[in-house]
Amino acid sequence: MSAREFVTADGTRLHLELSGPPDAAVTLVLVHGWTQDLTCWEPVVQRLPGQRLLRYDHRGHGRSAPARPGTATIEQIADDLAEVLEAVVPDGPLVLAGHSMGGMTMMALAERHPELVSRRVAGVAFVATSSGEMNRLTLGLPGLAGRGVPRVEPRVRSLLERRRKDTLPGSPGFLAPFTRWLAFGRGAARADVLDVAAQALRAHPASIAGFLEAITRHDRRLALAALRGTPAVVLAGQLDRLCPVPHARVIAEELPDADFVYFPRAGHMLPYERADEVAARIRALLKVPVPAGV
């Protein structure tokens, strides 16, 4: 595995890892979600031995530099992805898999860089993600509690923005009960919950505040049209509070040839909760025909 730094056009340093045989027929690109980092894909990566793959940390996450003022947006991280692809894996077909905000990044990539997508992308996996209406989440709470969730988001964002240090306070163990409730379904392993909590604690507070606002404004249902005809899979967990099943069904409706896979009892963290199945679905995409332009 080769770990390296990549500097974007606006001077932001991104941490990335490239592994697998350079002469592989297809490169798999794994894009992580909000408050996570490239390590969230580790359970899936372990089930794809020998695969050529690229992972990186979004700006403001993991070992990448914080987002510069005004750049914690879905549009910016889609441009980051385009830059990374052209610089690090400039040739050959790609399969893109995005979890949560990572899937949103892929949609914005299709919207902002359609030529790159049509020329090189041979398959896409949307894992526990959404094409819009994230400003109407209830987190699965009933009645007044659920309807009040959108009013809480600005307060959370304000608290994150006021944090002067580069990381959040607390420990994975302290954050674990909330992480389990918010991000996992039933029967989650404690080690997985702690790992996800630890990733959140490594994220840059002001950056994730900006991305939280950006997620509430994310609206890319129409952008999915650029991916019609591309082999695709849409994966959804029954108990996902953050990107509920109806959001996944919207993506599947816009990509009528996509496989829609529903996981009973699973939550938002499908790369942990259903690693075998996620890896199998991605493995199937890696065998799709190469785009004509490659």
UniProtKB/TrEMBL annotation:
InterPro entries: AB_hydrolase, AB_hydrolase_1, AB_hydrolase_fold. Keywords: Hydrolase. Residues 27-274 form the AB hydrolase-1 domain. GO terms for molecular function: hydrolase activity. The keyword rRNA-binding does not apply. PANTHER family: BLL5160 PROTEIN (PTHR43433:SF1), HYDROLASE, ALPHA/BETA FOLD FAMILY PROTEIN (PTHR43433). This is Alpha/beta hydrolase.
